[in-house]
Specification:
This protein has helices spanning 3-16, 51-59, 84-91, 110-117, 128-134, 136-144, 174-185, 194-200, 232-235, 252-260, 277-286, 298-306, and strands at residues 28-33, 36-42, 67-70, 95-98, 121-124, 148-155, 160-162, 189-193, 217-221, 242-247, 264-268, 291-294, 312-317, 327-328, 344-352, 355-362. The protein is α/β, with parallel strands linked by helices and 364 residues long. The strands form 3 sheets. It has a 9-stranded mixed β-sheet, with helices on both faces. A 5-stranded mixed β-sheet has the order 2-1-3-4-5, with helices on both faces. Helix 10 links the parallel strand 10 and strand 11 (264-268).
Length: 364
């Protein structure tokens, strides 16, 4: 196997850790000695231990003189864990290939400089674009002070998510719903609006084999704390992190009742309507969240799009047409000119039974 193959293996490991590693990035590391993989690891759940010391521990003495493939520049600062650069130096590795550098000001090239100063050959940039995509959420938190936001939509071909009577289960089929759960598993948090909670009483967990049964943090945009104390989210708040985002000044007694049930209530400024979503996302980033999957409903989708806070769209569309009296995927948000519309470009399209998943990215 060559350098390209080993870095691809490291990136595959990093992708497996998405949704589990926050507040740290999900990093893949492969240690190779004499053409043989001696150690491999991904950042542990919760962000530590980091991938490099885990892979080095697996390699043991075989790490001396080895080549190490790592998807993100090794850290060089002491936090809750010792620097990964020191672990690599102590292990006696000969060469380190870094896919992309870490934009954290505490690292940002310093990690590679530390390795070079110790006599280790360092090469940067192999499969950099793929590594930047894996790290897009972490990079967003560091550079923009907010998580990467993916808006998930499940609709008919004409963009309807429920009939005029409110019936919505199920527009898409089982394969699409399984993929939607897999998306949850790759995000740190799932966000919905309070209208969805009141109408559907969801649990917002990831219910497919192979994923953490607790799943991502459940986040509700609930400006006036209307989430019922008897809802599934509140009833299971002790088992799965549940955060409600409310306006400053929301009913203090209601807040105390929710917090006594294990819910974390986050107060931010008012928005138009609801809460200030940019401020809410900044708070999520400060708490370590790097990737948010926004699942609606239509008011939350419109508010995020209006505020230009959507980075990706995952559109599950069924081969059906409902008509104009169905509920739209996004409520009106004041577009008067075509040039003002949020624009996205298609990244991929995947068939899921009779349905399609189209993934889109914000246009440059």
């Amino acid at each position: 196997m060559d350098d390209l193959s080993h870095m691809r293996a490291a990136l595959a490991l990093a992708r497996r850790g998405l949704g589990n590693a926050w507040p740290n990035p999900s990093v893949g590391c492969v240690v190779v000695r004499d053409g043989r993989v001696a150690g491999r690891a991904v950042t542990a759940p919760g962000g530590r231990p980091h991938a490099e010391p885990l892979a080095l521990a697996m390699a043991g003495p075989a790490a001396r003189g080895a080549t190490v493939y790592v998807t993100l520049e090794p850290c060089c600062h002491t936090g809750r864990s010792p620097p990964c650069t020191e672990a690599l130096i102590a292990a006696g590795v000969a060469r380190v290939l870094v896919a992309t550098r870490d934009p954290d000001p505490r690292v940002d090239g310093t990690g590679m400089a530390r390795l070079r100063a110790a006599g280790i050959v360092v090469e940067e940039g192999l499969l950099a674009a793929e590594a930047e995509e894996v790290n897009a959420g972490f990079f967003s938190r560091v550079r923009r002070g907010r998580p990467l936001v993916t808006l998930k939509l499940a609709s008919t071909l004409d963009g309807r998510i429920a009939t005029r009577t409110g019936e919505s289960r199920w527009i898409t089929g089982e394969p699409a719903r399984r993929m939607a759960h897999a998306l949850r598993g790759r995000h740190d948090a799932v966000m919905v609006g309070v209208g969805t909670v009141l109408a559907d009483d969801p649990d917002l967990t990831c219910r497919i084999p192979g994923y953490d049964p607790v799943g991502p943090v459940r986040v509700v945009a609930d400006s006036h704390l209307r989430t019922r104390l008897t809802s599934r989210l509140v009833a299971t708040a002790a088992q799965a992190p549940t955060w409600l985002i409310a306006r400053n000044g929301a009913d203090p007694e209601r807040r105390r009742a929710l917090e006594s049930a294990g819910v974390s209530v986050i107060m931010v400024a008012a928005g138009t309507p609801g809460v200030d979503l940019a401020a809410a996302l900044a708070v999520l980033a400060a708490r370590g969240i790097t990737r948010v999957l926004a699942e609606g409903g239509a008011q939350l989708a419109a508010a995020l799009l209006r505020a230009d806070l959507v980075d990706r769209i995952a559109w599950f569309h069924a081969p059906t047409v409902m008509g104009g009296d169905g509920w739209p995927a996004a409520q009106a948000f004041g577009i008067e000119r075509l040039a003002a519309m949020p624009r996205f470009v298609r990244a991929s399209a995947t068939g899921l039974g009779d349905d399609m998943l189209t993934e889109l990215r914000r246009a440059a």
